[in-house]
Amino acid sequence: MPLWLLAAVVVVVLPATGLLPPADARDLLARTGPVLVFLLAITVVAELCAGAGLFDAVAGRAARLARGRRLVLWGLVVVLATASTVVLSLDTTAVLVTPVVLALARRTGTRPLPLALTVLALANTASLLLPVSNLTNLLAAHRFGTGYVGVMWAPALAVLAVTVVVLLALHGRDLGGRFTLAGAGPTPPDRLLLRVTAAVVALLAVAFAVELPVAPTALAGAAVLALATWWRRVRPLVPVREMLPWRSALVVAALFVLVETWHAHGLGDLLAAVAGTGDGPGDLARLAATGVVAANLVNNLPAFLALLPAAGESVDRLATLLVAVNAGPLITPWASLATVLWWQQYRRHAFEQGPPPAWHVVRQGLVLAPLAVAAGVAVVALG
Question: What is residue 299's three-state secondary structure?
Answer without folding.
Answer: coil
